[in-house]
Amino acid sequence: MSTILYMEGVMAYEERNAWAGLIVSPIVMVVYVTLVLQQAAGGPLTDVDWFPLMLWVIGGGIVGTIVLGIVWGMIAGAKEPDGVGRSDIRDRDISRMGSRVEQAFVVIAGLGVIVLCAVGADVFWIANTMFAGFAIAAVVGGIARVTAYRRGLV
User: Fold this and answer.
1) What is the distance between the alpha carbons of residues 33 and 30, in angstroms, rounded to a whole number?
2) According to the model, what pLDDT value does residue 85 have?
């Protein structure tokens, strides 16, 4: 078990990052859907200029996760300067397990995209299916990581 995991309320570096992604990912999803619906203004969704919105929201999500992780790390570093960035084999195992869970959902989204391409769906639906797949994969992978930190790997 990690020697720094819960000593005096300090969590491992990787767990903080999992929580940061878990906090930011749903916000990113809601912001994107809200912006698309606002631009549609009751019209067809396929008429929305979704590409710049998607790029900005993805970029904002990445920046938000990094900033949250840094700020959280600074706070943790003030509490426990020696253990703030350490990781051990358990952290690496949990990270691998979370990545496998995420990959499963990305594959499912990819299969959905292939089906949408096969039936000739609009590019809007194809791109948004992949975006939703990535977002869901990030949330489910984060949940898997946090659960593994709290309950252990099985």
Assistant:
1) 5
2) 65
Per-residue buried b or exposed e for 102-119, using 16+ beta carbons within 10 Å of the residue's own CB: beebbeebeebbeebeee
CA distance 48 to 37: 9
- Residue from 72, 65, 95 nearest 9 by CA: 72
pLDDT interval class at 8 (50, 70, 90) = very low
Q: Does residue 5 surpass a pLDDT of 60?
A: no
User: 44 and 65 in contact (C-beta within 8 Å)?
Assistant: no
**CA–CA distance, 4 with 8 (Å, rounded to integer):** 9
Report the C-alpha gap between 114 and 126 in whole angstroms.
Answer: 8
Q: Residue 132 and residue 81: Cα distance in Å, rounded?
A: 38
pTM of the model: 0.81
